[in-house]
User: Fold these one by one.
Assistant:
Number 1:
Amino acid sequence: MAGAAGPGTGPGAARGDGDDSLYPIAVLIDELRNEDVQLRLNSIKKLSTIALALGVERTRTELLPFLTDTIYDEDEVLLALAEQLGNFTGLVGGPDFAHCLLPPLESLATVEETVVRDKAVESLRQISQEHTPVALEAHFVPLVKRLASGDWFTSRTSACGLFSVCYPRASNAVKAEIRQHFRSLCSDDTPMVRRAAASKLGEFAKVLELDSVKSEIVPLFTNLASDEQDSVRLLAVEACVSIAQLLSQDDLEALVMPTLRQAAEDKSWRVRYMVADKFSELQKAVGPKITLNDLIPAFQNLLKDCEAEVRAAAAHKVKELCENLPTEGRETIIMNQILPFIKELVSDTNQHVKSALASVIMGLSTILGKENTIEHLLPLFLAQLKDECPEVRLNIISNLDCVNEVIGIRQLSQSLLPAIVELAEDAKWRVRLAIIEYMPLLAGQLGVEFFDEKLNSLCMAWLVDHVYAIREAATSNLMKLVQKFGTEWAQNTIVPKVLVMANDPNYLHRMTTLFCINALSEACGQEITTKQMLPIVLKMAGDQVANVRFNVAKSLQKIGPILDTDALQEEVKPVLQKLGQDEDMDVKYFAQEAISAVAQRLTKLDFPVKDNEEPSAPGADKNHFLRPRGPGEDTGKFVPLMSRHTESERLGWFPRRQ
Amino acid sequence: MPYKLKKEKEPPKLAKGTAKPSSSSKDGGGESTDEAQSQPQPQPQPQPQPQPPSSNKRPSNSTPPPTQLSKIKYSGGPQIVKKERRQSSSRFNLSKNRELQKLPALKDSPTQEREELFIQKLRQCCVLFDFVSDPLSDLKFKEVKRAGLNEMVEYITHSRDVVTEAIYPEAVTMFSVNLFRTLPPSSNPTGAEFDPEEDEPTLEAAWPHLQLVYEFFLRFLESPDFQPNIAKKYIDQKFVLALLDLFDSEDPRERDFLKTILHRIYGKFLGLRAYIRRQINHIFYRFIYETEHHNGIAELLEILGSIINGFALPLKEEHKMFLIRVLLPLHKVKSLSVYHPQLAYCVVQFLEKESSLTEPVIVGLLKFWPKTHSPKEVMFLNELEEILDVIEPSEFSKVMEPLFRQLAKCVSSPHFQVAERALYYWNNEYIMSLISDNAARVLPIMFPALYRNSKSHWNKTIHGLIYNALKLFMEMNQKLFDDCTQQYKAEKQKGRFRMKEREEMWQKIEELARLNPQYPMFRAPPPLPPVYSMETETPTAEDIQLLKRTVETEAVQMLKDIKKEKVLLRRKSELPQDVYTIKALEAHKRAEEFLTASQEAL
């Protein structure tokens, strides 16, 4: 190891630890002066190496002061530094010296950029645990106090995150001071600081003595919950969950509930949204009695809130709310107090509300049992299956398994089929994609007969969809179906249809055949692969389109492990060799790849050939004579179903030639 | 030496000198004693200063650039479709009794009853109607309110002595009841997903009434009878805070009114000024560090532009902090394009007032310089040029090294618009004169980038521009140019050597580290791949003569007038646009095209 004889000329070994003592820091200083950010970043990431080279003492006396004094760099570099320092305790000599790390982190905790500050706080929290109680009071607590009384809001914001880590281990006198500082941050003039304090209020409450919670935290909570800024008020709702867990029922009723009731009716929808969003946590925290008296009426209001955002958030919580009700009397409560509101939501004007409801409503059937489900819920399911918004229908279909357990899917199948067919033919490819993904699930629950009769043709139609993502999903869908229904079913229903496409005039469809074979061969086993699929693949090696030919090579590589050696030797190898002489560069390349994979297998090394790299490779843009597959019909945004973010991911497979 | 511009340095300074007092300002002295320093000034001189012909340093405009009403450029034609109306409103607190009686007209009533009738009408207008869930409800009463508002707008504009003391609380209440509301959730994606260039605004459904309420309030504030001393009982901090909350409205028409109203309030209520500035700062902090989403940043900056314009000299520390801690970090935000013209205006205003701020500003810009977002980089280059237009030569020499290192990177940008924008600097005579004065330090920084890209840049236009730049350098100082060429080659060799040296040094440190018993616990991260420069071509042994000849022939004269203003906002996709929104925005009339700084004091 030590003989890393790389720079053989190395004078380093001789002078290594002797004379030129400032050496590692000098290098760092020099590197940090470089223009290139990437270089500076790399140097900072190697900070631990430098510290190791210096040893603990010189790290403390030389490196850390340097870092504290001279670092002014881009946020990216500072972020890396803040992160590194969190793990530095060992490098400065262990817990006894952990406080040496505080000065650089303190200044990082005051910078403007939030990510740097947050990282510095995270590191400080980590290091605080390594302090001895004495060092904590001598070094860490003063740091927190300095930050808490800093001029600039950034340092006060950072301070908020540090109270809860030092409080439990401080002495009583110091504890009082810490509480005092926290109190003043809660009424800071800057909303940013109040928000930071509000967001840490719950965490801080948890480490306080119960008396202090009642006498100090509750008033702070009440104040923050009635702040002039709704962004502060909504954070108080979060704190409410933690505070409620700490108090007895009576205290809760007297100290917290008035504020919570008020929050549920706040004039800002953001606050009401937060209440709806945290509803399950609140419910657990306040216990069954208050839930029945207070939360259920509040929930009813949220379900009919004037803002769709709030209704949607509440609708999401319907199932959890019902589940968490005490079993005794649960059914009555749901039937009388919740269900009427749900019925309204099914015909809400906003599709997000409806689809939020659709994503959980099926879960109620297990809670309510068979009879209630059939009588009360089923009409709602059916209505949602006919909803104009595809997302609502999809959400119902994707949760069919819940109903299946209770009443069996047959009750629904009559309505299900039109809904599925409509989604399968939706003009938006993402809707089609979503329904394909549920096909295996549906197939399993509806049974093979129903499937063959009604859905099989849909699955085959997707194979020739004009959007690649759909064709791709359709092939993997076939594979899952074969896994479900078995090889015999595959041989009779799917394979022939797939193989017919090998003669399609459209090269994209011919390639789909190859992709299907890639996906199906393993599930179908050696016999079908050799007898039915292989001949077709081999025949396609003479295709006039280069994309098809190089995909033949890839397919042969893929199915190679399933074939027996005779077939490989006599049928596959000659074809690959011919492709290896192809005029097209890519065909040659993939043929060579396949040849070496096959050869490996033939020499009985018998590793399964590795080819995880995307069977989905579109490779469909041999631009020299084929039109690249354009974005087609469905560019632009389709907000309802997925975020734009997902869209860009989705489009990741776009023309990239292998 | 073609660069004689140095001699012409005096006139611009003078021009600047005259430009300043005009926009400068008096301090109202309302809020604190130290603001009382400046004396009232009669009338601002006519705003547009004739620019002395010889001036190279261009004084900036005297008014902030107005925010565009419609950010999206409508491309017309078939994609415009009528979508479901993009309107919303958070008006759930509908009044219970919405039956309004039509009152007699003010002008027909006896003078002594007018005040009472006016108040009655104002109270009537506190009734709120539903425009969203049932737009056709209460049509008759909506019309009563509309007509009433209209009449009052006329009345307050054209009659004298109608703003009596009793009117103030009523007018402010009417305004508050109608406008102060929690804004509805946006129909557009929030947070990082929001795309100001793509997403259409949601319009306020109750606009037919709100517009008149705004209109009335504005006329009320502007009425010659209006007395801030009486009004300040009602227009207080709470009022201003609620007003500022509305700036996040998605409706550009609403923000436009808010802007003018806040500008007036700032002008008239000296006691609120510090508070307003502080609250605006809080909005900015939240926008920069927490949400990155706020609809009214451009409007707020526009107001600030006019405020800064009126700052008294010397600038107070608080204002300088504002520049460094708020305005500069605003450059960081993703949606910079939405408010960049206003932001750049504010920055330049500061620098015109106090040139010693130039260094921190440029250092700040360089710190926030975009790494991957090319359109944003172009905006930075625009702003930097505006700054350089007003820079003092002494300030220039303080920042030029880091500055030109960045410009060298921009010139080498593979995005040709960035490279092109940077190279346009060579058309700016003032900048060229600054470079010429400091050639010995600037040239060695710029030369390698220019030389390298004169061959390797993929875009032909860039080649022409680069040769042009090289030619200018050559004419500037022949000798220096030759030296740079030589040095470039030498550096090239040394660069390799240095890279190797660095690797070796790290190797040694690594060895030292290994001696430490703790080494196994702190496995250093796997060695990062060395950073290679992107260059593909090795330096050819081309001699200077050849370069010079090429420069002569290739430095195309195409350049002089290419500096066209590019529209920075562009639509990325051809989404259908809502015809209703377009029409509504086109129909909106601004209360005032420009916010003047004339009345602004500190």
Number 2:
Amino acid sequence: MDPRRSARTVSDPKVRQVGFFTQPPPPDRSISDPPRHHDPIQSSSPSSPPVNDHSPSGNSLSPVMIPPPRHHSDTLLRTALQATSPTTSFPYSARTVTVPQENDDVSSFSPGRRVVSGKSPSSFPGVKASSVPASELTTVSVVNLPPGISVDFSAYKEFGMVRVSLLDEHQLKVSCFIILKTCAMKHLHAEKEKLTAEKSGGAAVEVQNDQLARSKPLKEKTSKAERRALQEAQRAAKAAAKAEGSKAPAAASKVGPSANTKPSKAAKPPSQKNDGSQVAPSEKKGGDRAPEKDRKKDAPHPRMQYDDASRVEKAKKRAVVKQTEARNRVELFRHLPQYEHGTQLPDLETKFFELNPMHPAVYKVGLQYLSGDICGGNARCIAMLQAFKEAIKDYLTPPEKTLIRDLTARISSYVSFLIECRPLSISMGNAIKFLKSQIAKLPLSLSESEAKASLMLDIDRFINEKIILADKVIVKHAVTKIRDGDVLLTYGASSAVEMILLHAHELGKQFRVVVVDSRPKLEGQLLLRRLVRKGLSCTYTHVNAVSCIMHEVTRVFLGASSVLSNGTVYSRVGTACVAMVAHALHVPVLVCCEAYKFHERVQLDSICSNELGNPDAISKVSGREEISYLDGLVNSDNLQLLNLIYDATPSDYVSMVITDYGMLLCLLGLTIVEELTMVKACGGAAHKCARHCERISKRTPMVLDGS
Amino acid sequence: MDFQVVVLAGGTSKNLTPLVSKEVPKPLLPVANRPVLYYVLHQLEQSNLKDLIVVVEGKDAALLVGGWISGTFVDRLHVEIAAVPEDIGSAGAIRAISHHLTANDILVVSGDLVSDVPPGAVAANHRRHDAVVTAMLCSVPISGPSESGSSGGKDKTKKPGRYNIIGLDPGKQFLLHIATGAEIEKDTRLQKRILRAVGEMEIRSDLMDAHMYAFKRSVLQEVLDRKDTLQSLKQDVLPYLVRSQLKSEALLNRIPRAEENGNEKVSSQNNQVMVSQILANASTPSFHDLCSVSHDGSAPIRKTHKCCAYIASSSSYCARLNSIQAFMDINRDVTGEADHLLSSISDHNNIVGPSTKLGTKTTVGPHCMLGEGSEMGDKCQVKRSVIGRHCRIGSHVKVVNSVVMNHVTIGDGCIIQGSVICSNVQLQERVVLKDCQVGAGFVVTAGSEYKGESLARKEK
């Protein structure tokens, strides 16, 4: 039981880190001392343009999405892993049946299997390929890595880690934390290497223990400034990654197997965290060093930081919707946009006829977002796509312009208008990405009407395949998890969960539903109404009572706004709380999320990216004037109201994610995202999708029985 | 934005005699020295609505109005003038120009509306709710009698006729009941069905229908075609639509949509159903949706349509020129509190034309307007009045709370209170007028006194 317990501590929420952190240098670095090996490559990498051309993570795809190609070293690494596996004992596999499959899983991560990696070795100059692997191989072999427990992704420069934790007898989970910063700025690199060099001299283990000791207070102390610094660094890193996108493979090759961590207590996240805090200042320094000009040249950060006054000013000038910044904002969430809600809608309404370039359908959708008439990820996405379809239908290419370019610009302007109405959800972002790629892919030979028809067809296909069919498949999968006598709990109103419940009811399963709701939206009531009408037996309660009601619940079904690549479920605020309670009481938590909502972003908290709702909504209780205790206080300076829309549920609390690609026991969000990107690259071939999903579902066992 | 704008300019209104005449149809009645139609057109132009259809009753009036529009808004607006026969009502007017209407939605504005409420707001509200009709409601203007003090008893007795009874849902989004003018003398009937569906109705009488409507074209045309008896948009069509909102006979546009899908596969139709269901579930249902869905939650059993209300904020100005009292009020307001409707700049509360000649010791009080080319003698007093262009006003004349139009000659020692004096009127010396309306071209003999009378030339 010892190993299990230790594994458990790893996933213990108390040592969960908040913020951006990196893996510590592995203790065994001292032996191989990889930095020295990297240096030549690093210097040569910019001067090897062929790499750029051949790299699959070229310009068409974000460098973040596809792991850089592996070279021989990776295959060697894999063989090394396999070679070590018989020698190392299998303390875990003895206990659970699933470990071999986990092992299989791991091997799927190991680069040798990658489709993309096939090309890459050839793209690499042979000399380097031969020189690097040797060192890496030694590094790997030194570590006694129990296979399937924790694996290193050498390609991810910013260290990844796979953790296996035995949470329960019936729940085995692997959550992979992969920080997808494939490539960072070079100076950053240098900094870190210095750091590692220093450490490698000394006793690394002691350092780590030190770090462990320090980690707790650090966590509490993370102030705004620090987070800010982290974000700054993150942004800089991202920008650099973009700039050097094609260099990523080269850069990746520089990094040795950076984090081969044993599943022992000391080596785990605490050290990670601490290292993060150490690297952060250096990163910050790097950011300062980078010329200001460069930063301006960089593409703007996708998510604007709203505590940056100058940028906000600029954005305001462009804005269509009048945005009055709310006065009293919570300090922690200053970087998120928050506006006075009362003024936006009337102001936008007045401008109805003045927004000439805006298509009426898009405008209508924007209005509906703004007024809250449409909410919910799927509905918003569908509404947006249908509006775009209308817009494309009425689109006429202006003279002396090409459809591909002009339409893309047009769609972009629509999107920015919609963002002003309400920040996009991740699902919408993915849909927009899809649409834009479809536009870009249009052959020039098509006539305008053909192109429009094909685009409209594409949109229909997206809605049908990615949303409707996906929901159907999810329902099909999820229904198998509902048995007679179950008590199912759901939170809020998720369209997927609703379909599941209704379908299970139609199948004649006997179960009860607990609908948990929360103020101020009370959207659960709408769901409840529909469920009760269909004859389901329901219990309705508010989230305050979730700890009490959870005792009788056998399964929790949750919807999600997005599933991120580290397995974090980004969903309606309150979901995390429900999931945590369920986890604490050993109730399986099933998250239903269509695959188009997956995103390669990694988010560890719900602070850095979130949405702020109307603060008035929580200060006033509609229909009950007698409890308006906050009247007159709302504008006082020492009162700050916070109405968060989303929260992030750590993957630890999620037993299973049900997507249209199958049920994922362990959160292989990353894999899904990768498969998706690959499929996208292949032109969206559906059969390929199916094959991938088969593969995924095969290697992800479903251990949910008997709970 | 797929909106067409129809301005119902009207013709020679009976309410406004003797102010209007063949020469000065209602749209050209000057309000603060500008034709009243200018305010509507200006407002529309500000909202970037440049393609308009202006409907005028009577051919002659149409010619006059057309001439004025092309002179004033040349190159700025693209206006089609449609002349319709008189006395066919606003619904009849729409019927007459029905074949010109092609856009999805129609914005119908009365030509006598003086308002700063942006039409876009009405249109956007209409679109947002996907309504069949959206009516703009504004608070009844703080009415003249109390403020101007001196208006005649005749107007006061007329006033109650303008009240409306308007029922709104608790969210003040939907129109549940509307009864206007004359109907209120009788008992008002509320529909039980609507009341039951909504659960709660707010009945207000402090709101007024401003006669700015956004209609769904298909529905409007269908209703007008089917119901020949409907005469007026305000009194017939709107109440009809509001009445029938829960058992809609009009909304047939859902059927063609189903037909469109007919040629596709059944599976895709299923998908369509799912899409619409997801969308429907995501939005907060209005009582229409709840009512239309049968109790087992299956397909809609009843057709409904939404009638929305856009309530103008209390800070905005909104008034209709449909009576003499309103004419006085609007004149006063436009020069006074609502002077932002006039694009011209006023230095201190009054607008005095550049070429106006004032005699010695002549005072022009605040909230006044003096047109260009007018001349005033010595020791005159002008308070809260509008004086048109090229008027000649003698000495010791007192003009209070009055409207004097163009080319009026006023002799020495006249006292004019609360009156309207139309163009080309001649007032000889020492005329005293109180609460009078003097029709165009009338000559008031020296020394006569009138109170609360309407003076006009006999029709030739």
Number 3:
Amino acid sequence: MAAAEVARQGEGCRTVPLSGHVGFDSLPDQLVNKSVNHGFCFNILCVGETGLGKSTLMDTLFNTKFEGDPASHSQPGVQLKSNTYDLQESNVNLKLTIVSTVGFGDQINKEDSYKPIVEFIDAQFEAYLQEELKIRRVLHNYHDTRIHACLYFIAPTGHSLKSLDLVTMKKLDSKVNIIPIIAKSDAISKSELTKFKIKITSELVSNGVQIYQFPTDDESVAEINGTMNAHLPFAVIGSTEELKIGNKMMKARQYPWGTVQVENEAHCDFVKLREMLIRVNMEDLREQTHTRHYELYRRCKLEEMGFKDTDPDSKPFSLQETYEAKRNEFLGELQKKEEAMRQMFVQRVKEKEAELKEAEKELHEKFDRLKKLHQDEKKKLEDKKKSLDDEVNAFKQRKTAAELLQSQAQQAGGSQTLKRDKERKNFF
Amino acid sequence: MSELVPEPRQKPVVPMKPVGINANLLGYIGIDTIIEQMRKKTMKTGFDFNIMVVGQSGLGKSTLVNTLFKSQVSRKSSGWNREEKIPKTVEIKAIGHVIEEGGVKMKLTVIDTPGFGDQINNENCWEPIEKYINEQYEKFLKEEVNIARKKRIPDTRVHCCLYFISPTGHSLRPLDLEFMKHLSKVVNIIPVIAKADTMTLEEKTEFKQRVRKELEVNGIEFYPQKEFDEDLEDKTENDKIRQESMPFAVVGSDKEYQVNGKRVLGRKTPWGIIEVENLTHCEFALLRDFVIRTHLQDLKEVTHNIHYETYRAKRLNDNGGLPPMTVETEENHESNL
């Protein structure tokens, strides 16, 4: 059977009126119920110098005492400590992960302080990217560890941002939603606070640091988000101690000159922070992380690996094609390298062989020479021996001859002597 | 507590076992407002839903879809005139409409398959349909694999396929079995007994039982599939639907009549008016509630999380794996060299 024809009426779909109640207005409820059954994830990163009250603020925000001992100032480098908690409120299960920097700002040389933080954030994105690129993946059950919000704690100096703060925030602003807050703001008076906030905002703007802006496109929250945007950075105070004020128990800090109430909007911006972070924009923070920061990371990572999008009308699945091309290229390079190595090896072998041959030849020559020498020597010796033998023979001959002569002479002499003796005898 | 010491090539953080805190909550935090936040966001973005209707012509497919969504979303074919040729192949016609109710905007696409089962030789007439479904998955996959992705990938995948069974009263036809066998693996199939006003109550129950038996014997898993039940609650609810109500015996109509002082959708016959939304007359209301009011989101999720993922895994396996997994082995090779 030939291929089917698809007749699709394009994107300009008409709106059709309904003549009765269909019931799909329960769709958002269905979606929400499914998400509730699934549970939510929220990950907060707290960046700030040691002793600025990060852990206390987290405790205050979530109305509970998270575990942990305060860190010391003598850390050798910046580390990140991560804790996960399961919080439950009515029917909502929230998996809250709080990551804190330990030892930030304590070193003498703070040039590399931002690096562990950036690496941590990238590692979370990388984990998600790896999961997304798997063949068999379980994305809907994936425990999302990407950082949704970064609370940057600014020390309450009252002057301006420290250079460490500027550098770190600049590095983080494209990777995570930054919400700057002024910590321990009970150390600053009201007038100083306004000046401080203005100074901070202008410094951030002049350095091009993009902090998280609360979204103003949805009418219901546009107004409140708009006003809150003007109050950034929030000046907060954290406290888990409860004191009796009036006839209610409230979270507060007691000083000899008065009591600072955490949830009093005139005293600090804690309530605003809680509203914005949790009650109004939690979902938006998650969405921004996924659609903006994660997509940016993914795009950069994939481009770094050498993949490009081809035009829409070229072959499908361009990633695969690029991969094949890269693979072939790589294999070609491998082969070339192998060839080069082999050539070098062969050459070396040849050289060595020549050397060895040379040496062998030399040895042979030496051997020949020595042999010749030996033969010469032998011959000489033999000659000498021969001559010696000759001499000996000659000597023997002479000896025998001499002996013979002597014996002859003796005989003759003997006979002569005999004769003489006879004559002597006869004489007598 | 987990301490993360940053190294040059850092492994991703392994989330440690979470500490459950419930009893320590001293006051209201406001976490449950996330439900409202999520709801507002989804209402703003709107929903997509793509429903496919498959069945021989004359079984009342278009009428049923119009009745389901209470609007003229599907154009009824008035049969083939002498001038029009009967299509030699199965055509796929997808028409999109935007409907709105209670502030919720839905882009509904009805995919019609005229010509299915109408030829004399119906061999492989499910192939164009299977091809179409896979093409939609392919389109989505292509968008997902892009480097610069769209914020919201347009979803044209078929979320639900209503298969119309002819009310013969005997059993399923071989064509029905073949179609459902092939397609229950790629899409959510909801079998529906069309024109159920031709059967009496007893005939209906018997027919349904026989159909269920045959589907089970042939290993056809229609929606809701047993293996995708997430928890006990889902399982009991879905079991009840699977074993008692499905396949729904429906009657469709877009004409209104006056019954007992109310205006109802129905079919007028000499022997009475069949009320479409009356549960004692037919199971249309059950089908509507099932598909739209309770399981619409689930249909979309099963399509996305299971059918699409299966297609994707198969597609990537055939091509030898997706880049970063094997690029890492390449990196290892390089370092070894």
Number 4:
Amino acid sequence: RYVRQLQRLQLLFSPTAADARGARQFVEEAAQDFARQHPDVVLYVSPHSGPGPAPVLRAEYLNGTVREELIASKTSEEIVQLATKLANQSGLDIIRIRKPFHTDNPSVQGQWHPLTNKPSILNVQGPRLQPQ
Amino acid sequence: MVVLSAARWVRSRLSDRFWRVQEVLKYARHFRGRRNRCYKLAVRSVRRAFVRSTKARKEKKRFLRALWITRIEAASLEHGLKYPAFISNLVKSQVELNRKVLADLAIYEPKTFKSLAALAQRRRQEGFLAALGDGKEPEGIFSRIVHHH
């Protein structure tokens, strides 16, 4: 069954700043619909009064990664799209994947070592081997 | 910040030069010498590094194929077969394994690779019998071809 990797979304913005207008519109109009459509994500809306840092949408994932996206001077629709994008991501880092495959047990028959195809007499150590 | 008249344009100065420089230097941090510190030298080195990395994508395929072939050759020589004989006989026995998979088998599944080498050897012997025997002996078992329709 699908488990959504996004744990919580924190909307940090100031109620008076000019660039947080999109965030305020989002909170007024689309935040409730978004929260209803994604019932397993917790949406926190925390306005900090007065001039403060830029409005930011902080996403925390189940594996602990925290991703912050600036929402300054964005419209409400763009914030909705951004939030859905964050909700569909997992918390893995966004870097180039070196290999598209991974195994924990790569070898079933035992990995090759220089003595695999040699006669096993080479591996025997002990008093039996000493010449009489 | 597009300013229309020339006089005003001259007076506005660049304020985020630091970040524009850092955008380039962050790709040069692991270089040697002054190229990882000085912007003028780093720009040229970073551009060449990017060009080389795009061109190397084609060569990576060639390089990896050569690596696989070396490994398969070493593994088949351990079992007494040379690489061209091994590959050609596997293909004739309708075993369509590519070199990547064969190299991985040789490393991680040595017994499977030994059995593949034995199969190739048997097919080789049957090929010799069919070519030299000329005639009344029945065809080899491993030389039979399966037709998929």
